[in-house]
Design goal:
heterodimer; A: 151 residues; mainly alpha; 2 domains; elongated; B: 305 residues; mainly beta; Pectate Lyase C-like; 3 domains; 9-stranded parallel β-barrel; 2 helices
């Protein structure tokens, strides 16, 4: 365990160390030492590029679809009542309450990005990342709808 | 002396009239809590829209071709707009536009023809819809949403609150940003989505199933048609899937960090010697439904009924 860590595994190992998820075998001293050595040296592994591309595409999809959702009137399916300042207040209250959910989503994306950097060929991680992006898009859609109701 | 007395009387009179006007202008006084009870004729298979900001809304189906609205209007309610036009009935609780806080909203029970399509939107109010056979859409921003009934399509969603659906509808969508979601039914294509909260789905047969949570466990119980597609994606949370022992399905299960327990026998294998993830692929009954379960941080347990 005195050799350098595989650069692709380093972000994952760092996450495991920081979040208290030790590996099943006793690899800890070697991993810890390797991470510290690399951090001291200021040498960060080059990340593979494909996941950044995938994340950019996913983010773009979220923005495009989110924008479309925000501007498509719901027509017959929405009663479309008179805007009220009270709705705005409720929306503001929700926005504050929603911080926890947004934090959960951001945390999930950070974890997934770290994992994807370590395991770039794992299609399941990409699927989960898209799912989390969708959740974020859904939150945006909901807040947009609430804003629409406030006029 | 007479002149002074007249001035005093005039002054007191003006004060009294001003006080009266101020009192009349205060909504809490001119709109005291009162009962509401109105009925309109409606189509047997019409559409009923309901909108309320705060209080509670309960919609029930009945045999009459009428919509009946009854309940209590709180101090802050201005009026109820209750209109019918052709197949559409619209019930909106109206509040004064310049009011800052609504403490007392409207608690309404709305009876609608059983075959109606119902759409309810509330802000801070629990919503309950029952005994309605048409399509149901029920939503609240902050409040629980409960639906019992619906034979066609049910969509129930809230931002902050629990969602509970018991329905024979063939298509069911349940969603909460923060809250617990549960749905029970017969045979349906089911979509469930939660950011923070647990999901419980229990159906006789799933024709399709899509379930997503960012933070929250999922319990899914039921049979699957051979052509069903089932995707369960969980970022952080455990999955318990309970299926019949004679299920015909192809399973693909993957965890990035979490174990897999399979009552059908085949054991999961580690995805990497460095990470605690597992993966498992197997078929039962010669294959059929496509069941994919994917977690980032959470275990998966597949049980037999």
């Amino acid at each position: 365990m005195d050799r350098d860590l595989d650069p692709r595994l380093e972000p994952l190992a760092r996450r495991m160390r920081d979040r208290g998820q030790p590996p099943e075998r006793d690899l800890w001293p070697g991993i810890d030492e390797a991470i510290d050595r690399r951090e001291r040296a200021g040498d960060h592994p080059a990340r593979t590029g494909w996941w950044r591309f995938a994340a950019a595409v996913a983010a773009m999809l979220v923005l495009v679809l989110g924008a479309r959702d925000l501007h498509v009137p719901r027509g017959d399916s929405t009663p479309g009542g008179t805007p009220s300042p009270v709705v705005a207040e409720a929306a503001a209250t929700w926005a504050l309450d929603g911080l926890d959910e947004e934090a959960a989503i951001e945390s999930a994306l950070a974890e997934l990005n770290a994992a994807m950097a370590a395991d770039p060929d794992n299609p399941h991680l990409s699927r989960l990342a898209l799912m989390v992006h969708r959740s974020r898009g859904e939150m945006l859609r909901r807040s947009g709808e609430t804003a629409q109701r406030t006029g | 002396m007479e002149q002074n007395r007249n001035r005093i009387i005039t002054f007191v009179g003006v004060l009294a009239i001003s006080a009266s006007l101020l009192t009349i202008g205060t909504p809490a006084v001119w709109a005291a809590e009162r009962d509401y009870d109105e009925t309109r004729d409606a189509k047997a298979n019409g559409v009923v829209y309901v909108e309320n900001i705060t209080g509670s809304i309960e919609v029930q189906g009945w045999e009459k071709n009428q919509v009946h609205v009854s309940g209590t209007l709180g101090n802050d309610v201005k009026e109820v707009e209750f209109k019918t036009s052709g197949k559409k009935t619209r019930i909106e609780v109206v509040y004064p536009r310049k009011i800052r806080n609504i403490d007392e909203g409207a608690d309404l029970v709305i009876m609608v023809p059983r075959g109606s399509r119902v759409e309810v939107e509330c802000v801070s109010a629990p919503v309950t819809v029952s005994a309605v056979e048409g399509r149901i859409y029920a939503s609240s921003i902050s409040g629980d949403v409960t639906v019992e009934g619906g034979e066609d399509e049910v969509q129930a969603e809230t931002i902050s609150g629990n969602v509970e659906v018991r329905s024979e509808a063939t298509k069911i969508a349940v969603e909460s940003i923060s809250g617990r979601v549960s749905a029970k039914g017969d045979r349906a294509a089911v979509e469930a989505s939660v950011v923070n909260g647990r999901v419980d789905l229990e159906f006789d047969v799933f024709t399709d199933c899509s379930l997503e949570t960012v933070n929250g466990s999922a319990h899914v119980t039921g049979d699957f048609t051979e052509s069903a597609d089932c995707d369960i994606d969980i970022h952080s949370g455990n999955v318990i899937l309970t299926v019949p022992a004679d299920l015909k399905a192809d399973f693909e299960v993957n965890t990035f960090s979490g174990g897999i327990d399979n009552a059908f026998g085949k054991r999961a294998r580690k995805t990497s010697k460095y990470t605690p993830g597992r993966e498992l692929e197997f078929s039962t009954g010669g294959g059929g439904a496509q069941i994919r379960i994917n977690t980032f941080s959470g275990s998966v347990e597949i049980r037999k009924m």
